[in-house]
């Protein structure tokens, strides 16, 4: 499509002109983003409500707060992140300048997802701008109100040539992926992740893929079940379960399964009241397609709690399934909905083996009072990130990298890691043209004695 | 799938956790050093046979550099492996937040023929240090070295965790059908694309060390003798078959006139009046590469060298003057002992010339005026940069080595190797107590709770004053 070519051409020409490189320019753009978030808070919250039925509190704390924090952190640290980093020299280079220079990559592509449609576009954008790049932003068309809003707002606050927004669905994204970018950051599912990487391979474009998977949650017999279940309930059902790092399923000993169910039920009542559907704090499934997908996972399962659905409003009640078989459909794909299966295991060994026989997840959770056990789980499994005795929280520590491994993704971002992801670390060695005598040792005709110096 | 069994065997070993301990990794790394020491003569012989490499060059580029990497790694491994603790926000003050370095699993290293030991061994050091199992696929083009590595290396390493696979294009293609947890490839951009496409099917992260045409700008203000020596050394080392060799020179016509006699003298100093008789000058690796290079000799005019001997796959150290951007020598990475000179009017033209082409692995700039060197550095982009010398920036283990754009993605050497082959896992350990502190985040929501969340988890500007 001609329009994509034009957008790319303009972004690249502007990048090549050097406009996005000075630190002052980058900080000015970030300040403009900060103003945008503060001035247009109402509009942003309205879009999130329209897309996901997110209430103001949730929308602000899940999406806006994180963005503001990232902006402040980035503006604060950018001068030190962007400064050339001198490195350790050896005898031969003692009089040389040796350092790593952080440079922008060029024109990067950020593809957002629909579940946290604002922050998942904004956070990568912040890092890409900070690193001095031009950025093409492609918000998810599924969360169409937020996509529209971004398409209207970003050009009002940011440099129009450097940071264009491209909207549209699969055809537009496919077209975009034929273009040559200098980095692509994609948030979404594993299947499309493969497509993005294959497209990137044609241009040798490096990628950061923030994908998903089934994030396991192991509950040890030795733990405060009430606290554990409250924390798990919070992380599982926020955004109606549509969170890439939600605890996807529980692993626990059969003897505590009943208590786990009781505790979660009690917490759900505390959070959403007797009639969940009328709680202003409970979201909805994003669209009918996903509603039907999640609903179908309930077939043939033992529903210990919940299970009510209403297609018209894409409502699925917070649901718990017990004695789930590892071979059932609900244990095959990432649930991405308010359905919590419990799979019983006889021992920690069995739990670890269960986890390790499956694809590496984006997050992993373990609840226990036993520090030794927690250490074992960490060292005998692998995952993008993890939290012990809570859920979700590792993703809000600003200095921890956020990313997957294996099928849950590659690369990482957040804070300084965003800056590094969107930068090229160029090795620089500046020598003196004089002092040739030192070099004589390396020139032929070489002698073996010289080698042993 | 002929390699499925091998890959799953290695994966099972990795899952068993035997590679976790530092002691285990150290024994494997030390075994690599024994390999280099015990088999030094065999390595010298194999590379001499494959590439006509002078013993000095092999000792320097294949053994000495590898040992530096080994020592750097062994000296620092325990520090690199440690969990890195990070700052926390006020809300998480009593918790433990850290980055854990974890191996990926089963790593595939595909090596090229030009530095057939170094280019598998240095990545292998990083992969082992990070705790991975590794399959090494040496190049079939450097035949003697391939046989040496396949027959001898496995004896030094744990056979459950490390293997060498040999073969040509077909075997590599079958190998790439398997799922690896990381692929490290050194080679050409077209094959790099093939590797990355295969990796995409399994969502395998990759590091691609590719190539391109490394420009070498020589300004009018410089010590011509020193420039000529440093450039000649970098260009003709290993008979020009070096991914970071200066590929072509950019200079004014006046500088070209001054450089030619200086280059002639440098070549004579290094290799004598008949380089074919010098024990220090290498040979082209194969007939195919020889014929490819021969065809480039028609570019510009042969100012120095130009002689060839097909039986020996010998191409003399050659300098081509007045080469045009449209000439064959300027269409592909040369990867041979031929140095084209492209005449430009001034530094700005040189920079524009460089920027109108694919970003190379390295850019070189020579000038007595530091400002000139810095201008070239700042106004261009490349994997790495070296001012007033060639090749040396990759000998410092503290500098990352990697490309950008067509010249590659990712990097390694020193700690960067360890980081390349490690997954950085963000970890947060909380306690079960102090649950009331979590209360503000739970529904049902209220404005007051929200204010508490904002206050305890915000990152404030240093010159802000916050009253809680």
Automatic annotation (TrEMBL), chain A:
Pfam families found in the cross-reference section: Aldedh
Record-listed E.C. numbers: 1.2.1.3, 1.2.1.94
Gene3D superfamilies given in the database record: Aldehyde Dehydrogenase, Chain A, domain 1, Aldehyde Dehydrogenase, Chain A, domain 2
Catalysed conversion reaction: an aldehyde + NAD(+) + H2O = a carboxylate + NADH + 2 H(+); a fatty aldehyde + NAD(+) + H2O = a fatty acid + NADH + 2 H(+); octadecanal + NAD(+) + H2O = octadecanoate + NADH + 2 H(+); 2,6,10,14-tetramethylpentadecanal + NAD(+) + H2O = 2,6,10,14-tetramethylpentadecanoate + NADH + 2 H(+)
UniProt keyword annotation of Translocase present: no
Family, per entry: Belongs to the aldehyde dehydrogenase family.
PANTHER family, per the entry: ALDEHYDE DEHYDROGENASE, ALDEHYDE DEHYDROGENASE FAMILY 3 MEMBER A2
Full protein name: Aldehyde dehydrogenase family 3 member A2
The species this protein was found in: Dasyornis broadbenti
Lineage: Eukaryota, Metazoa, Chordata, Craniata, Vertebrata
Gene name per UniProt: Aldh3a2_1
TrEMBL record, chain B:
Coiled coil start-end: none
Residues of the active site: 209, 243
UniProt keyword annotations, A-Z: NAD, Oxidoreductase
SUPFAM superfamilies for this protein: ALDH-like (SSF53720)
GO CC aspect terms: cytoplasm
Keyword Cytoplasm applies: no
InterPro entries, per database record: Ald_DH/histidinol_DH (IPR016161), Ald_DH_C (IPR016163), Ald_DH_CS_CYS (IPR016160), Ald_DH_CS_GLU (IPR029510), Ald_DH_N (IPR016162), Aldehyde_DH_dom (IPR015590), Aldehyde_DH_NAD(P) (IPR012394)
Gene3D superfamilies with a match to the protein in the record: Aldehyde Dehydrogenase, Chain A, domain 1, Aldehyde Dehydrogenase, Chain A, domain 2
A single GO BP: aldehyde metabolic process
Domain Aldehyde dehydrogenase: 21-423
GO molecular function annotations of the record: 3-chloroallyl aldehyde dehydrogenase activity; aldehyde dehydrogenase (NAD+) activity
Family indicated by similarity: Belongs to the aldehyde dehydrogenase family.
Designated name of the protein: AL3B1 dehydrogenase
Species of origin: Dasyornis broadbenti (rufous bristle-bird)
Gene that this sequence comes from: Aldh3b1_1
